[in-house]
Amino acid sequence: MYRQDTIVAISTPIGEGAIGIVRMSGEKSVEIGDKLIIFKRGGAIREMADYSMSYGQVIDPFDGQVVDEVVVSVMRAPRSYTREDVVEINCHGGIVALKRAMDLAVQLGARVAEPGEFTKRAFLNGRIDLSQAEAVIDVIRAKTEAQLRAAMQSLEGGLSSKIRNLRSQILEVYAHLEVAVDFSDEDAGALPTQDLIQKLGECQKEAGKLLADARRGKILKEGVKVGIVGRPNVGKSSLLNALLGERRAIVTSIPGTTRDVIEETANIQGVPFRLQDTAGIRDTGHEVEKIGVELSLKTMEEADVVLYVVDGSEPLTKEDLEIGRKLGSKKALVVVNKVDLPVVAELDQVRQVTGERKEIRISATKGWGLEDVERGLVELVFAGELRCLDEAIMVNARQKELLEKAQRAIVSGREALEAGMSEEFAAADVRIAYEALGEILGEKSGEDLLDRIFSEFCIGK
Ligand SMILES: Nc1nc2c(ncn2[C@@H]2O[C@H](COP(=O)(O)OP(=O)(O)OP(=O)(O)O)[C@@H](O)[C@H]2O)c(=O)[nH]1
Ligand SMILES: [Mg+2]
Known about the structure:
This protein is of the alpha/beta class. It has helices at residues 29-36, 95-107, 117-124, 130-141, 145-155, 158-182, 193-222, 236-244, 287-302, 318-326, 347-354, 370-382, 397-418, 423-441, 447-454; strands spanning 7-10, 17-25, 37-39, 52-59, 66-75, 86-93, 111-112, 224-229, 262-268, 271-277, 305-311, 332-337, 359-361. The site of magnesium ion has 6 residues, from helix 8.
């Protein structure tokens, strides 16, 4: 259960830095801080105003040695991250001083915090709900601005308020259904079944929209896997480098240069595209290259989108066409490279295997056509709905499962009513939906669930 003890952690990354922060939260943090820190101008943390800072030294109270020069701030309950008394000690960012300050706080009665325990306390003390607490991880891990925006929306309660709205609509339906069950013969003010069916239809739509926004959030978070494939020497690695704007992969005129899959993320219109350069696909007796080719085929299979690269400056080979055929039903762009040289490849034959897929002519070395490739990728993945990315929400696996459960229960409740079954059945379904949404907000969450969620956090958060 929730412990009232005082926790301490180094809240900044471990390593050299300009400053490093030791953070304490709990009833005794001011008292412990006062035993640990001496201010140059006298005074003590207990005398400091809320949200103010003071300059002092961390002194080892057991041997009187100066540990570090520090700036201390204090935020008292309930106006703090955890809603408890919080003391933050800004040390010089060296690991030895930070560790020593933390160890001393422990010797004076604090306990080393578990990962995410500060945020867990913020949740347990009612400052944020569970979906907001979970958003903190997404904010920390955001790799692009669009990701950050979506995560911040959840942190600020965007997801919670949508869930709460949906939940209150569901509650209304539930109340009417219960009235109908309890007072079946009288007119007790329950809405007609037809109205309830309609209301559940609206809830279903709302849940569907949340799930669609969540799918976009997932793309923002995990990125789009793009497999760059083709036969050896067509310029796959050159294309990777050109899209990244740096020399990441080795490029040579020797076919079979790339052996391993090289993945780098490019930020295209705010969306992370995980570009995967692969070994050129061909029949080969060379053992290392053979493994590379197997990896290429696997990458192609697992990609969300494929960039199928051919060399426009040379006649096609049977490998080119074989790879084209392997695209199957994959989303892909046909990239004709090396168009700075005369185009001699029989592109008609390519089109026969690639069908309707868009063809883009580029020169990876001259940087021609790269924007077309980027635009093509975005169009292929979002089919013109990139605008909707602003409405993307970050939903983790746990939240998604619960949303889907609620959605299923709403559908089943509506169907029960439509089939003319007794209101009891619909009421049971609607109740399941209501509870599933409550779980997203963290109502009635058991200790193991909380442990699992917060253990993903970094220490000191
Ligand atoms: N003229 C011209 N040459 C290019 C272009 N793109 C790549 N090349 C050259 O083609 C050769 C092969 O390029 P890579 O990028 O290594 O080709 P790859 O497809 O990664 O080859 P593997 O790793 O062997 O499968 C190099 O000599 C590049 O300089 C281009 O747009 N124009
Ligand atoms: Mg290569």
